[in-house]
Amino acid sequence: MRIDQGNLPALSLGCTVFAGGGGGDPRIGELMAMEAIRELGPVEVKPLDAFGDDDLIMPCGMIGAPTVMVEKIPNGAEGRVIREAYERQFGRPVAAVMPFEMGGINGVLPVAWAAYAGLPLLDGDFMGRAFPELQMLTPHLYGIPGSPAVITDERLQTVVFNTRDNIWLEKLVRNCVASLGGSACGGLYPMTVGQARRPIIPGTVSRAVRMGEAIRRGGEEPIDSIAQVAPVIRLGQGKVVDIERRTSGGFVRGSALVEGLGADKGRLFRLEFQNENLVVLEDGEPLATVPDIITLLDMHTGHGIVTEGTRYGQRIEIVAFPSPPVWTTAEGLAAVGPRAFGYDFDFVSVVDRYA
């Protein structure tokens, strides 16, 4: 398949649904990608098997607080800077661009960078959704280093990190991004196609396009359109009656209260997030938690709502999608389960919880 002016909006929409509230608002990335496609033509989307084992891939995207990304927009040349840094480092050309997470702006901006580089986009990513920290990518579970990591801002100031492990990579890059104004662009976990065969979550780009197209075709029940593409669990329907959000240390943290409507009248949901939605609680008990994908949908359109876009008065559906299986292993839950975020309860899949 390929990404062109016709299906780019569908990709953007699908990215908000699978992001779990994170990854940043895709509108800016969509505009940049649309301009790149208009100028240079469509971007080919290829599976991993279309490349040779020694081909170099460039996982990339934005890092930092999504609230900052709305106003501190990219330069447009960051992808070129990251690619050139990797080509100098490895002494070979980059063969494909890849979103390191399939959510929000990070599922869309790499399309622009691929178009400008004349490269294909790999149909896959290393999260299957969005997560807030840099060790929360599948290569970390397989002992693959995120270094060298290339970080550049809209001034094209560039820092290359080579760290002892991925936990230190998160700490040092996060401090760097905070110093650069709260958001920046980056390349992480560069590797060959052969190395990527184990950690890649395949097909996530094409799945996001299918999701966006299903929602755009629409109907009176957006959930029905969504269920055509991915299994979805409906947790509740309501109105946002309170939102608390703060930006610090390169993250957006906060919570939202949702008062039930319709069949859920009388219920009160509490949603907590760190860039991405982490848990949904009712009466202090979890209804869904990471690594399952918790998403707020506009009740009328089915469009996903990112955490920085959550507003008082919105009528929403709270839904959850089952996590990619890699995150429900013991190693995966140690990295991204509820206890990794400080919650004192274990993960129970929405599939099991609502079976």
UniProtKB/TrEMBL annotation:
Domain S-Me-THD-like C-terminal: 165-350
Annotated ranges, domain S-Me-THD N-terminal: 8-162
Protein name: DUF917 domain-containing protein
